[in-house]
Every structure is written in C-alpha cells, then in structure tokens.
Amino acid sequence: MDHLGFIAAVYLTTFGVIIVLVAKTVKQGRDLASKVADKDKPWT
Q1: DSSP per residue over 3-33, as a string?
Q2: Contact predicate 38/44, CB 8 Å
Q3: Does the model's pTM come out above 0.85?
Q4: CA angle, corner 11, sides to 6 and 15, nearest 5?
Q5: What is the DSSP letter of 39?
Q6: What is the rounded CA–CA span in Å between residue 32 and residue 28?
Q7: Is there a contact between 33 and 41 (Cβ–Cβ < 8 Å)?
Q8: How far apart (Å, rounded) are the C-alpha atoms in residues 9 and 40?
Q9: What is the distance between the alpha carbons of residues 43 and 19, in angstroms, rounded to a whole number?
Q10: For residues 20 and 40, what is the distance between their CA atoms, to the nearest angstrom?
Q11: What are 31-44's pLDDT values in tens digits?
Q12: Apex 23 CA angle, 4 and 39, nearest 5
C-alpha cells in the first residue's frame, strides 16, 4: 500500500497516452479520408 499513488499515476499516465494516440490516429484518418475522392472510397 506504500506505492499505491505511484501505481495509480502510472496507470493514469498509460491510459492517458493511449487515449491521446487513439485520438490523433482517428483525426489523421479523418483528415486523410477527406482528401480521397468519393469514387475512390469503396468503404462508403
């Protein structure tokens, strides 16, 4: 129980970094998808 604060901080930092990376990836994907012509989007 002595290291509970450190463990919690590491978990929060890890999940925070993961959330930031996912948000950046989604934003970049949306930006790139907007540059592709509609006829070249077989996923829509």
Answers
A1: THHHHHHHHHHHHHHHHHHHHHHHHHHHHHH
A2: yes
A3: no
A4: 150
A5: G
A6: 6
A7: yes
A8: 45
A9: 25
A10: 29
A11: 998 898 888 888 76
A12: 160
